[in-house]
From TrEMBL:
It comes from Vanrija pseudolonga. PANTHER family: ALLANTOINASE, AMIDOHYDROLASE 3 DOMAIN-CONTAINING PROTEIN. Residues 547-566 are annotated as: Disordered. Residues 547-564 have a biased composition (Basic and acidic residues). This is Amidohydrolase-related domain-containing protein. GO terms for cellular component: cytoplasm. GO terms for biological process: purine nucleobase catabolic process. InterPro entries: Amidohydro-rel, DHOase/Allantoinase_Hydrolase, Metal-dep_hydrolase_composite, Metal_Hydrolase. Residues 416-522 form the Amidohydrolase-related domain. Keywords: Membrane, Transmembrane, Transmembrane helix. One of its GO terms (molecular function) is allantoinase activity. Pfam families: Amidohydro_1.
Amino acid sequence: MGTPRARRTAADVEKVVLLVDEHDDDEDDNSFKGHSSKRTYHHLLLLLPLLALGYGYINSWSFPFPSPEPLPPFVQDGIKRCAEISRPPPNLRDYDASRKRSDRYVKGTGAVWLKNGTVWTGEHHGEEVLYGADVWLEGGVVRKVGKAGDADFHELCREAGDADLAVDEVNLNGAWVTPGIVDVHSHLAVDAAPGLEGSDSTNSLKAPILPWLRSLDGFNTHDAAFNLSIAGGITTMLVLPGSAGNIGGQAFTFKPRWTAENTPQSMQVEPPFVINDEDGWVRTKAWRHIKHACGENPLRVYGNTRLDSAYDFRRAYTEGKKLKDQQERWCAAPKSQSEPFPESLEWEVLADVIRGNVKVNIHCYETVDINDLVRISNEFQFPIAAFHHAHEAYLVPDLIKQAWGPTPGVAIFANNARYKREAYRGTPYAPKILADAGIRVSMKSDHPVLDSRYLVFEAAQAHAFGLNFSEALSSVTTHSARTAGLGHRLGYVRPGYDADIVVWDSFPLALGATPKQTYIDGIPQIIKPHVVDKPAAAQEISREGNYDKEAAEAVESRGDPDLRPKKRSGRVVFDGVAELFVPLEGVHTAGVPSRVVVDNGEITCVGTECVVDQAEFTAIDLKGGSIAPGLISTGSKLGLIEIAQEASTSDGKAVDALNAPDLLDGLLVRAADGARFGGKDELFAYEAGVTTGVTSPISNNFISGYSYSFSTAAEHALEPGAIGSTAAALHLNLNIAKHSISTKLTLLRSLLAGNDLKASDELHTAFAKAAAGDLRLVVATSNADVIAALIRVKREVAPPLKLTVIGGHESWLLADDLAKEEIGVIITPSRSYPFNWNTRRILPGPPLSHHTLPAYLASRGVTVGLGIAEECDARLTRFEAAWAYAAAPDVFSKQKALDLASGNLAELLGLNSEARAADVGFVAYEGDVFSFESRVRAVRAPGRGDLDLFV
Ligand SMILES: *[C@@H]1O[C@H](CO)[C@@H](O)[C@H](O)[C@H]1NC(C)=O
Ligand SMILES: *[C@@H]1O[C@H](CO)[C@@H](O)[C@H](O)[C@H]1NC(C)=O
Ligand SMILES: *[C@@H]1O[C@H](CO)[C@@H](O)[C@H](O)[C@H]1NC(C)=O
């Protein structure tokens, strides 16, 4: 079906092609499975009068006789609108090799000849990985993918020369190449960095139903995250409004590339509306997008219970349906109309949803919510593009298939769970379970909830916990492009597709894989990339982890499996040990150290010659694995909280020592007294090698109180070893809250100097101990100026003070002073992001800087630890240490990298006494502890006489 529109701007040329040729043989997206006959019939009925009408219209336009009276302008306008709304849902055909220029082509862009790469194409039929392959980028599109040195490349090169086009020849030497990473759930530029009060355009807070809002209207082109995301390979993102309300507004797709125009609209990819010279604001053929949300957010923000939310959706869709019916009635007889075409700014997009022209993206976690929306989609007959977050989707794949129209995809996190009740049943095995059930899985960032720069890390975790590598890579490329309605031009390295390409320093799902270069529209985005040479092993395609048993338990228990270890033994003999990172003073050694004997929970002998009575020992083959100290997790409220947003599951907020009612005045709170054991995050962390948590009281006060250390394995506080230290260190907070930073520093100076303040004895005693170096102060701040002020206080009033900075993102600016004063830094979270003004001067790490923050600080002599900011991420501690190692093998040995999350933390958190280092137990890993594939097989928890076995 043609359109009556006469003239188009150059930028729109591509869309003319699309309008004329809109066959698509991609069944999944475009036939309406299970409803296809119903749907087609419905459309035909609608189209019959319109085809006649369109014909009449074109007729009168081309052959002006016998033309009695010109139609009144409102009827002419209405007829145009009828043509527009009558189009079938965007049914965009795949681009093929005949597409030689992108609508986003930037004049002057040269050609790029990528030579001798290992290309993951995204094709699932035979040609998924091409070794020794070349890729030609020109005109903003991929022109050719083929065998290195194929004659066609030389021909393209000759043609480029004839056309005076610069050709950038890049020798990849076998480096991995993938399509650009597509983030199907981002708030980039609406929740911009650094976060400032003036820049928040994530949500409206006016009402739960706001389909008329548009994320495009709040898109901040000054977001500091664009280049960071590009440095992680992000080339396209669907920018959704927030989830405060049930219908938060319309979403739009963007590429993060800086444009010469420097405008939100120039950053859009395939916009559903464009400014056209002739008609002004016109609808294109592209998909529209809308955000819906159910469950807890609308409850918290608007008091909408699930019942209210469902009613609000139905009310809104009733308006959309009413409008759609009115419009169709008008279009059935336009010439006899006395009123203009029925329009509604508020409801038109919902009419378009019911017509099937809008990708509906629903933030929805729980079975009940997914079911509500599946019913609503059937009641009003609209398809759902994807359920987002969807932490219970893995429990109900068949329900998801009952949504009206094609089966929705899911867009999920790899690990981020349990922060609220509806996320409580989240499992790391969900991507695999869902993919096996035939659901299209996308991993997403919810940027800046997760920094989209590390979206590939989400795919890599999904892979490590069961998803095969094709599905894992597809989950951030092919599948996400398709879910975002852009699968016809993005998600593959394929001729005619957008020249959005990432060249990687290792296999993209290897731990710490980092782009060497990101191309968007054929333009290299990283001006002078810093590249770390990765070992050959990191170039190999890794096998997915086998967690079938754990996945089955998650499903069988309906998302609440018993995570407690089930086997114990005090006497274990490990064979196949490749590396030992535990101290061995006084341990008997005999022969090649590939055997380790543990008796009564202690390592008693190392070596092949160690003699054991096999009958009395449990034998475990670590298959080239390692034995290392237990890891420590700090920085979150692990051990004080089970579900962060449920007050009854937590210790609650500590009293302010400086502002408390009389009885509590000057009290230093001890987190140990609020300790909670047996939570899911503790157990997930334990089975991942984290034996010890160190947590300070939940507080926004300057003086937070004493942290405590605890065993993640303990069931209650009275078990031996459950609580290590009850007053490990005194924690202070210099992030802005009630009082100014200068007020707090003045107070700190006075307390350390022992000035005669009207403070409690307890406060005076504690700060006197700190000033003498007998009690460590751990101070939360990231800002370099604040850290400098702290250093001055230490120098001027308390030189013996033992000080640790936690946060520390700008600390690299003062590395030498920190080293000189022996002030340590616990980088928290362990990868920096310019969340706010005080963390904006980050050291981003490769490919944007040579050093990572931990490596830079360590290389200057600062004692560094890695902190974990969220309870659920405690189980990722090992990966963070391994990542620090992978990014800076010149600075860290493996032992030093492990220290970042163990020995150094023990010191920086005051756990070691003069006489004794803290007991963190030890962990036996099968496989290399520095890879995703390694697996914990046994743990000796602090204070225990036997080992928990995970075999
Ligand atoms: C292509 O890359 C591979 C892997 O690094 C290398 O062994 C080979 O020599 C390269 N071939 C050419 C022609 O550069
Ligand atoms: C990868 O996983 C998907 C989803 O379970 C499955 O359809 C596909 O066959 C798997 N591919 C391979 C090569 O095993
Ligand atoms: C982002 O990268 C572009 C080059 O692609 C560069 O021109 C720009 O200055 C960078 N922006 C920032 C804030 O660093």
